[in-house]
Fold this sequence. Notes:
Layout: H1 2-13, H2 20-42, H3 47-64, H4 67-83, H5 87-104, H6 107-123, H7 127-144, H8 147-163, H9 167-183, H10 187-203, H11 207-224, H12 227-243, H13 247-264, H14 267-283, H15 287-300, H16 303-331, H17 336-420, H18 427-454, E1 463-466, H19 467-476, H20 479-484, E2 488-492, E3 499-502, H21 504-520, E4 527-535, E5 539-546, H22 580-590, E6 594-600, E7 604-612, E8 659-663, H23 667-677, E9 682-686, H24 689-699, E10 703-707, H25 715-723, E11 733-737, H26 742-751, E12 755-758, H27 763-790, H28 800-814, H29 823-830, H30 834-845, H31 849-867, H32 872-878, H33 884-895, H34 899-906
Parallel strand pairs: 2-4, 8-9, 8-10, 10-11, 11-12
Antiparallel strand pairs: 1-3, 4-5, 5-7, 6-7
Amino acid sequence: MKLIRLVLLCLTLGPLLISPLHSQSLSSIDSMSIKLDLARSLRRSDPDLALKKALEVKASAQQLGREKELALAEQILVGVYAEKANYLSAVQSGVAALEIFEKLGMDKERCISNIHMGIVNRYQRQLERSLSYYQEAAKIAEANGYDTLMASIWGNIGNVYYDLDQLDQALDYHQRSLEVDQRLQDDQGVGNSLHNIGLIYREKKLYEKALEYQKRSLELDLVLGNRTNVGISYVDFTGIYLEMKDFENALLSANKALEIAEEINSERIKSRVLGYLPMIYAATGDVEKAIAFNAEYRDLMDSLQAARLVEQIAEAETKYGTEKKERRLDAQEDSLSKQRQFIAGLILVFALIAIVTYLLFNRYKLKQSNRQLKLEHQQLQLKQETAQIRQMNEMKSRFFANISHEFRTPLNLILAPLRQHPITIPQKEVSMMRRNADRLLRLVNQLLDLSKVEVGMLQLHKRPVEISGSLQNLAQSFASLAQSKDIEYQINIPERDYIAELDPDKLEKIVYNFLSNAFKFTPAGGTVAIHLLIAQKNTLRLSVSDTGIGIAEDMREKIFDRFYQVDSSHTRAYEGTGIGLALTKELVELFEGEIEVDSQEGQGSVFTVSIPIQLLDAAVVPHSAITTALPAAVPPQVSTDQHPIRPTMKNAPTKEQAHLLLVEDNADLRTYLQAQLSTQFQVTVAEDGAVGLQQAMALIPDLIISDIMMPKLDGIGLTKALRSEDTTSHIPIVLLTARDDGETKIKGFETGAEQYLLKPFEQEELLARINGLLDQRRILQEKFGRAVVLEPKAVTLTNRDANLLENLVEIIEENMEAEAFSVDQLQKEIGMSRMQLHRKLKALTNQSASEFIRSIKLKRAAQLLQQGGLQITEVAYRSGFNHLSYFAKCFKEEFGLSPTDYAKHQA
C-alpha cells in the first residue's frame, strides 16, 4: 500500500519540480509542433491559413534558435508557395530547409525536401534542374533504405522524362516505382504507376499494351473505391480507342467517364470527356450531337479566356471591314494590279488572324493541361498524407488499447486482494501484488521517459560504473524467469573489472528491455544469451540473442517506432505496448551510441548496442564513488502456475458444485481467480483461447470465464466457436477485458456472450454474475425438461439447443418400439460422444441420457393410454417395453399411478 502511495505521489509532484524556465520553453516548443501539424494538414485545403501558421513557427524558431523547427517550417512553406504559384519564395524556402537538414544530419527530411524542390522546378518547366533534385533525393533514399520514398522519387523522375518526350527512360523509372509499390503492397501506388505506364505506351502508339496497363490500374481503383481515378481512367480509355478508331468503345468509355464526372461533380473530368465527344460523333457521322457537345465543351472553358479570344477576333474582323471599304473606294481609280495587291493583303490578314487564334487557343490548352497536372499531383499527395495520418491513428489506437490492457490487469491483481481481505493478505498474494506493482511502475516510467525525450529533457547523469559486475548482477536477475520458462540462459560477461563513466539507470533500462524482449518472444526449449565485449578500450559492445520467433524483413525498420508492435493482432501471443524498443533506441542515441538488429523470421534475433566509453584507472577513482550494481531490476512476470495460491476452503468441492472453465493468458490473474473461485466451484484453467476451446469441447463445463485479448484465439473467437457447436452452444460465457470501448462489447454480445466484465473488477461482482447465470441455466433446465418431455411431437422451439432436443426426440421416436435402443445408439445417431451427450442433456434438462430416453417412451405410453382402446400389454410393447412388470414400475415412478389406474383416471 505504501508503494502505491509513493508512486502516486511521484506522479503528482513530478511536474511541479520542473524549472519555470524549462516550462516556458517547453510550452513554446509544443506550440510550434501543434502549428506545424496544423500547417501540414491545411496545405492544400486552406493554403492561406497554412502559410500563416508556418510563418509563425518560422519566426518563433528563429527567436528561440530552434533549427529543426525552422527547417520543418521552411519545408512546409515550399509546398504552400508552390500551391500559390510563388515559385521564387518556394525555391528560397527549399534551399534554406536543405541547408539546415544537411547540417543536422536529418537525411530523411533532406530527401523529402529534394523531392519538393524537384516538383517546384517541374512546375516551372525547369526539367533538367528538377531531374537533378530527384537524383539527389534518390541517392539519399538508396543509402538509407527509404523504400517508400524511392517509389515516389522514381515515379516523379518518370514524369520528368515523359515531359521531355524521352519515353523509354520514363517507362523504365515508372516500372521501378511499380516494383517498389508492389513489394510494399501499396495498392494506390501500384494503380498510379500502372496508369502512368499506360500513358507512355499510348504515346508510343502501342495501344494494346496501353489498354492492358490502364485496365489493371482501373481494377485497383475500383477495389479502392477511388472514383476520381476511375473517371480519369475512362477518359484515357476514350482517347486510346479514339486513336485506334474504335469509335464504339470510345463512346462507351466516354459515357462512363461522363457518368462518374456527374456523380462526383468533377468539371476537370467532364471537360476532358466533352473535348473527345465532338470528335467521336463527327467520326461516326452524327453531326448534330457533335455540334451539341462542342457547344457544351465550350461552355465549360474559362470564361475570361474565351471573352478575350472573342474580343481579339472581333477587333480583327472590324479592322478587316474598314480596310475593305477603303479599298473599294480606291478601286475605282486604281489599276487592276492594285486590286490584286488588295486581294493578297486580305489573304494575309486572314492568315494572321488564323495564326493568332491558333496560338491563343494552344496557349489556353497548355494552361488547362498544366492546371490539370497540378490538380492531379495535389490529389496524389493528399491521398498519401491521408493514408499516413490514418496509419498513425491506427497505431496510436492500438497503443492505447494495449497500454490499457497492460495497466488494468496488474491493477486488478493489486486491488482484488486488498478488497478481499485487506488486513491479512497471504504472503504469496503479497508477492504477486508487488510483482504487478513493479510492472505497472515500469510502464509508467517508460511513458514518462518518452515524454522527456520528446521535449529534450532526458539527460545523462554519468558516474563511475564497474561494468562487468553491474551487468552480471542485472543478467542474473533473469535466471528465475529462464528456469520458469524452460529456456537455456547463457551469460557471457568477462570477470575483468572495467570502470567507465556511464549513467547506470539508463544502462539498466537498455539491458532490461533487450533481455525482457528476448525472453518474451522465445518459446520453451529455446536459448537466450547476453554477451559483453569492450572493443579497443573505448567501445562497449553489448548483444542479446535469442532463438525466438524472429522479425520479418519488412518489419525490422519499424520495430523502433513508437507504439509499433510486430504482433499487432488482437489475439496477442506476447504482452507489450510498443514503447520498450522505441525508448531503448532513444537511450542508446543519448549515449551517442548505435543499435543494430539482425533477425531471421522463425530463427531468432540478435540486438547489438555499441556505446563509446572512456575506461578509467581503478587506482585513481575512489572506491566509494564506483557503482558496482545497476538499479535493482524486477524481471518480467514469472508464471505462478508452478506454485499456485491455494485457497482456504471450508469445504472441498463436491460433485454437485458447478464446473467452471477459466480461460486467461495472464498467469498471475489466472492463478488468483482459480484460487478464489475454487472455494465454491470446480475450476479448470486454460492459458489461451485455443486450449480453452479444446477443454470446453471435452469437459462441457457449466460456465466459461474468458479474457478477450489472448494468444492463438481471442475471447471473441472462442465465444463464436463455442456457439457454433451443438455440444457447447448452451454454455453461459462471461468475458473479461481491459478494453473499455463500445465496439468490443457489441462484438462480444453479438457472438453470444452473456456477461461482459471490465478490469479491474470486484470479486463479489464476478461471483454474483456467475451465480446469476447458473440460476438462469437451472430455470431453463426445468423449462426444457417439462416442455420437451410433456408432448414429444407438440413442442416447437427455435434456438440451437431446442433444435438439438427436437432431433433427439425424433431419433427416440423412430426407435420407440425397440427395447434394445440404448444411449450408445442415440449418441452415434446424434454425432456426440457418450460423455458429451450426457453433459449436454444434464445441462439442458437435468436428466441423464438414459433417463431422457425412458422419459420419452413413458410419455408415449401415457399418450396411448389417454387415447383408450388398447391393452396395457400392447401399450408397453408399442412404447418399447418388453417386460410388463418393469414397464409398470417405471410408469408409476414417472406419474405416481400404475398404468391401469392412469387409464381409468383418464377415462
